[in-house]
Amino acid sequence: MFQQEFKYKKFFWSIVLLLGAVIVLVPTLVIATKRAKDSPDRTAPAVTTRNADDYQSNSDYYQSLKNVHDFSQLDNLRLDRLSSPRFHPINGKSVIYLRRQYHMPDLRGSTTTLHWLDLETNNNIQLTRPIWGIHDRQFFWIDNDTILFLSNRASSGLTQIFQLMLPVDLLKATTTFIEPIQITNYSLNIDNLLVNRQASRLAFSCQVYPNLTIEETFTQKTTEKNSGRTVYQFDKLFIRHWDEYMIGPRHHPFLVSVERQANRIFKFSSEPIDVLFNVDSDSPTRPFGDAKTQWSFSATGNSFAYTRQYDETSAVAWSTNMDIYTIDLSKSGQTSVCITCDNLATDTDPSYSPTDDNVLVYRSQSKQGYESDQFKIKLYNGSNSRITLLDDWDRSIQVVTWSFDGQSLFLELGEEARHVIYHLFNLFTSQSLTRLISNGTSHEINVHPMNSRMFIFTHQSFIEPINIYLYSSDGLMRSITDHNQALLAKVNMSPMAETFSFSGAQGDEVWGWHMPPSNGTDKRAPLAFLIHGGPQSSWYDAWSYRWNFQSFSSQGYAVIAINFHGSDSYGQNFTDSIIGEYGSLPFEDLQLGLSYALKKFSYIDPNRAVALGASYGGYMIYWIAGHPEMSLRFKTLISHNGVFDTRAMGYSTEELWFTEHDVGGYTPWSNPDAYELYNPVHHVANWTQPMLIILGAHD
User: Fold this and answer.
1) 237: Cβ–Cβ under 8 A, 6 or more apart, which residues?
2) Which Gene3D superfamilies would you find in this protein's record (predicted)?
């Protein structure tokens, strides 16, 4: 699946090599990278051993540097990464968020900690102790002084549930880090956590064998590990999904009641119930599902909704069908009820109204076997009645967030290569829609508990790494974090990125990005011509820790990146246009876009250009290499994890729905010509330009 490249693949060091090779004429070179193999029983992860006094923030490190230097990929990886901002659940006067930091300056270790920020004074406190290899995540601010979260701080090294107790006067009382209290002590990692509003129930997930308990699964894994077994027998698909072999354990959600003890520490007050016991399926779904999006407790906490896929048979390899199930927790012995089984495409991300147990919204697709189909919002009212919201709107919704009064929704979606935010007012009456944020990339909305028109969120762009922002009810937005300020002050970067459009294939308007070199446009500059993966993706106005435009521009390159036919965020018809056209419409767009850019940005030296792409972009590099009318315009080509033989991919890939849909709905044997029509392997005789090939052993 081409979209692997744009979801969680780590090839940072390959980019470092890439930057040094883009203009040099070298013979074709293959670099293969391989990650360390996960332990078969997913026990404790390796923890970097370092002394307690080894901690240094990137601010301290960069403040110690005397000179400003050109931004590099090493600087990029040293940036703090901020996520998951949450208001104080009662008064909204402060915020807690996650901060991931890297060991300075060698990057040999990272840690994720909880941070507290006072919105009135801007005082910032690191709540949990930074320890290399330790990561706090998925936290829930329960009340004034209580936080529940996941962390691998347990002595076993496994991820468990922890509780943090905040002092009454946090600023005065906190002179050192707050030591969290471990709540669970299972023999397996806890991978996901969700707590209801009343803190009376929670859901968590472990990877268990479908018919075994947590401890029975641990015993079975231990037995298998000690047996030295290295051979597995598979009798159904998936055998492998992305970079993971399906050897038995599944992500299962467990529901449990919780209560405070006299010392205010939480404990389980019932036995956890495996919602999917004896079902060979995952929830959250693999490989990218999580509890935040795919699970939901109702307003009273008496109902639970979850998304599941149908992994029980080999049909999963041809199906994008996911369904939403609900379970009534107010009565014992209740079974899950499917509320979307009449739709054979994807239904996912249930979210209950914060005020009404009978109402939930979710995202839904209508085309079977098409993962890039438009996502629409469905509203379910508990009586098996569903309403499609904004049914005539040609936008694909990515995330839906309720206002606290339950009367409106905040929508995150891609629009013309930006991740924007809309507000859908008067949900149950006139439904008024307003765009609130138009530029950059905005995610992770958390709405103020007392003001439904105020929220915090993460924001980034090509010229700004991720920060946490506050959006006020007066329509203003401001950054409330500055962890990377010292680093950014010591590097030279390009101050701008701009869009341009041209007449592309079929005469359609096609858009692209231009970023000039950080040292200006006064002299001729080489070109980095970037080709995105997906292919149903886009070059979004977003910071990247991988294919970062600044990593090229700071080395003196101009950057041109085209969002060709098949890219998302320009309407569903434009996205769909690539079906059966992998080597035609996008290829023509890239040719026309390159010509237009060289004419419009005359400082770019056409004789010093390199084309580089990953995943589908890597496929396109191979396609370009075989077509001299395009390949000879570049001094060198770079392909990262690209598909070289489309017929071979059709026979070897695991998500069969993907290749079969994108060639027009055919298998490799029912219509071989559909796979050969745009197959780069047939044009190798035309290869003339040197090429750097980067391969990931798990891709």
Assistant:
1) 314, 316, 317, 654, 656
2) alpha/beta hydrolase (3.40.50.1820), TolB, C-terminal domain (2.120.10.30)
Establish how many alpha carbons lie within 13 A of residue 662's alpha carbon, considering only the half-sphere containing its beta carbon. 26
Consecutive H or E run containing 204: strand 201-208
For residue 57, count other CB atoms closer than 10 A to its CB.
18
The pLDDT > 90 percentage for the chain reads 86
CA distance 632 to 689: 7
Residue 89 and residue 178: Cα distance in Å, rounded? 20
Contact 382, 673 (CB under 8 A): no
- By the 10 Å C-beta count (0-12 exposed, 13-18 middle, 19+ buried), 565 is classed as buried
Residues 135 and 190: their CA atoms lie apart, in Å, by 13
Please name the helix (run of DSSP H) or strand (run of DSSP E) that holds residue 17, with its range, or none.
Answer: helix 12-21
Q: How far apart are CA 285 and CA 311, in angstroms?
A: 10
Q: Alpha-carbon distance 501 to 511, whole Å?
A: 4
Fill in the amino acid letter for 464: E
Helix, coil or strand: residue 513? strand
Give the pTM.
Answer: 0.91
Phi, psi for 63 (deg, rounded to 5)? -65, -25
pLDDT, mean of residues 211-226: 96
Average pLDDT over residues 56-81: 96
The answer to whether residue 165 scores a pLDDT higher than 70 is yes
Q: How far, in Å, CA of 11 to CA of 5, rounded?
A: 9
Q: Mind giving me the DSSP string for 433-461?
A: EEEEE-SSEEEEEEE-SS-TT-EEEEEEE
Contact at 8 Å (CB) between 306 and 253?
Answer: yes
pLDDT band of residue 14 (cuts 50, 70, 90) is: very low
Q: Note the pLDDT of residue 383.
A: 74
What's the pLDDT band for 430 if we cut at 50, 70, 90? confident
Render pLDDT for 338-368 as a digit per residue (tens, 0 to 9): 999 999 999 999 999 999 999 999 999 999 9
Residue 178 DSSP symbol: P
CA 336 to the chain's CA centroid: 29
How many CB atoms neighbour CB 314 within 10 A?
A: 15
Cα–Cα distance for residue pair 591/631, rounded to 1 Å: 10
If we measure between CA atoms, which residue out of 95, 60, 70, 69 comes closest to residue 485?
60
Lowest mean pLDDT among 340-349, 383-392, 627-636: 383-392
**Residue 105 in this model has a pLDDT that exceeds 50:** yes
> Residue 174 has what pLDDT?
63
Q: Say what the pLDDT of residue 54 is.
A: 83
50 exposure class (CB count in 10 Å sphere: 0-12, 13-18, 19+): middle
Higher pLDDT, 428 or 202: 202
Which residues lie closer than 8 Å to 399 by C-beta, 6 or more apart?
293, 349, 411, 412, 413, 443, 445
Alpha carbon distance, N-terminus to C-terminus of the chain: 9
